[in-house]
Each structure stands twice: as structure tokens, then as C-alpha cells.
């Protein structure tokens, strides 16, 4: 079959965009689950026809959908997310303690080796796992019960576990990120966790170098070098070369080091992409110019990618899960905006076209490169 | 037969077109109607009331016979006209969020 499938979660439903490997002509399917927020959809690397979707809304709560035919048909599976044991409390906006309450699933990360195993990052921050294709969910509570849990507090978007990265060379190792608690790593399949925030500096914290409390926005790795992790933080683009033991800043010549997503080229481990946003309150590109920035040197030296992107009067945002890459050659890069555009580059970012322009605000993008 | 009217979001989720007709043994209450509804459509579990506590979700409302029954006890009998199938039990997504 071949080709590429782009899974788009939006504020009012899901869309699936399909193309052959040339990535010039696109078919648009959707809206699926119209009227619901689709925070994330992702396909199994083991079986690309197995796709999981997080469907939620303020009225009717959380639903998980699963497809076994590449998104043609869907069935609701389990939506019971019960915290393990006594949920406990975390810090609230006013400094008081607030009980952990499940709100929604932000991110679904299918296992790299078993199509029925999938991880869910949820708000209030916790990690769940299903080993039966999403029918039942069990919390990996070693993370939430990590000693710093009561000090975690929500960011403006809620206290969400939004990023899950599995080390392909050792699937016992995973990285996760929580707003606003920071990054954490497990080396034993999720049983125990350690914060990995040394080197991060956040001026909004009383102790800018604190062990936890950092507002990490997104993490990305290249599969060939899983100890090298790139991070887009609330402010600062960061990098670690030793699995999070120490981070250092690679913002370099970016026009702003605030942003949400970060992605790594499929074939070049030192090529990294970010979308600078003006500031923590002005969630739009600097100067009204939508620019993806690419570093071919693993950070610090960044070039603006503008061909095909609006270079005036553009004030959209790109959310943390709304950028992804395919594994075609040349590598394709995709991102979605709060204005409902999905932009694609079939040449590693040199030029861009809008696959679709008028979807609801885009919450997430994932790409499947089909065999 | 009890007649239940679902909001569009939940009709789509359960792949229902039109009203739902349920056989519900007496006494007919919110709880017994919702139990029967979730029995037939398991995908609705957790979307109307909490999985564990069975508390109504905050932005869900229950109407019948021109009355808001949302704050009634889940074990209070529903109006006779609902129990007799003459009037529907309405599950509503509250007007919220503009």
C-alpha cells in the first residue's frame, strides 16, 4: 500500500489525511467524532492499522476509540481511569492541597513491540497502561507517588502528563513530561521514576534550579540515539546527551525560545525543528511571520524555514503535540495550527504547503509512514 | 417501555438514531433507567455519570415532563408519565461554554 497517513486531532473532531509517498495529493477523511475534542491519535508501530484516539469533552468526559483498519472504522473501548489507591493531593493555584482528579487523556503512546499495549498520559498528571488494546487501564502509580507529587501544580493548561517517549533500544526506559512538574525517567518499565531536570532553569520558580516544577512543553528523540533528548521548555530549548542526567541550553539564535512542539528529523539525528512563539502570553509567531526553525547542528545554530508559510499577519499557535515527522526519504515534516491549517513539507522543511486550511483548531498531529 | 432521548454526542457514540426504548423494571428511577441504558450501550458508561460514584456529570441534565430532575435523588421515582412511556426521559448536555 505505502504512503503516508496524517492523524489530526482537533477541537471539534478528528481528521485523517492520506497521500502516497510523493505527498503531493491528499485525501481528507473527517470529521470523525464530530463535536468532541480529540486531544491525540496515534497508530501502533507494530500494526499501523491499529490506531488509538483520545476523545473527550466537557459534557460527557473521556472516551477512548480504537481502529483496527487504519481509521476506516472505530469502536469505543475502555474509558475507566481510576487512580491507584488513595489519589492524594497536589498543590493548587492558591497554594492549598487539591485532590487528584481525572479530567482527560492528553497523549496516547502505543508500545513499540505489542499492538495491544498502549500508554496514556492524563490530567491530573498520571501515567496509565493498557495491555488489552485499550479495554482496561491501570495506573503506573510509581510516578504519581514519587516523593515530589504533592508539590506539583497545574500550569495554565492544567496539570497534564502530555509527553511519553519510549526508548526503542530499551523499552524499559521511558521519558515523560508534565506541566508543570518537569521531566521524569523510568528505567524499569514504569515501576519507579526519577526527576530528570538538572540543568533546567525556570525564572518563574522561587528556586529557578529546583528539582521539579519546571514547565516542560515537549520532548523528542531520534531512535538511533535515545540518550540524546531534545526539549522545548516554557522558555528555552534544551538538550541532554545522557538521558536527562544534565540538560544544557541550545536556544542559540532563535528569535524566541518560547514554543510548544519539538521534533527530530527521521534520518538526521542532529536535525531538530521548533516553532518559536513570541512569549508565554502572546501565543503567536514573532512579527506575525510563521517560521519553523531548523538546526542541523543539534541546536544553537538555527535557520528560518519560510517558503510556503505565511510571512505577514499570521497569529496562530502550534501546540505541543501538533508537529510530527514521517520516515520517507526525504523526510516529511507536518504541523497543525490553532487556525486549522495543516502544513506539510516533503523536503525536510525547505518548503511547505497547506494540506488543509480550515479545520477546527488543531490539537495534535501524528504521522504514519505505511509499508 | 421507557423512552430515553439522548443528546447528539451520545447518539453518535452509541450509534443510535432516534429515541431509545428500554424495558425497565419498577420502580422506575434515574438509577434504574441509567443502569438499563448502560447495560444495553456499554460505551455510554462514564459519559453520563461517574463510573464509580454514579454521580451525574456536572454538565449533564435530566429533564422530564417539563421539569428539571437533575437534582432529584437518583432513587426517587420518575414521573408516572415517564414510567408509563407516555413522556420521554431527556438526557441533556447543559448549555455551557457559549
Write up this protein.
The complex is a heterodimer of chains A (371) and B (98). Chain A has no helices and 30 strands. With 371 residues, chain A is an all-beta fold. Chain A has a four-stranded antiparallel beta sheet, with no helix packed on it. In chain A, strands 4-5-6-7 form a four-stranded antiparallel beta sheet, with no helix packed on it. Chain B is α+β, with helices and mostly antiparallel strands and 98 residues long. Chain B has one domain: Roll (Ubiquitin-like (UB roll)). A five-stranded mixed beta sheet of chain B has the order 2-1-5-3-4, with helices on one face. In chain B, a hairpin with a 2-residue loop joins strand 3 and strand 4 (67-68). The longest helix of chain B is centred in the middle third of the chain and has 11 residues, at 30-40. Chain B is globular, with a radius of gyration of 12 Å. The model of chain B has no long low-confidence stretch (mean pLDDT 95). The interface between A and B is medium-sized, with 15 and 20 residues.
Features:
heterodimer, A: 371 residues, Methylamine Dehydrogenase, Chain H, four-stranded antiparallel β-sheet, B: 98 residues, alpha+beta, Ubiquitin-like (UB roll), five-stranded mixed β-sheet
Q: How many domains in all of chain B?
A: 1
**CATH superfamily name of chain B?**
Beta-grasp domain
Approximately what portion of the residues of chain B adopt beta-strand conformation? 15-25%
- Can you give the helix content of chain A as a percent range? under 10%
In the CATH hierarchy, the architecture of chain B is Roll
Radius of gyration of chain B: 12 Å
CATH superfamily of chain A: YVTN repeat-like/Quinoprotein amine dehydrogenase
Structural class of chain B: alpha+beta
Stretches with pLDDT under 50, minimum 5 residues of chain A: none
Give the oligomeric state of the chains in this entry, treating copies of one chain as homo and distinct chains as hetero.
heterodimer
- Calculate the mean pLDDT score of chain B and round it: 95
Shape of chain A: globular
Distance between the termini of chain A: 7 Å
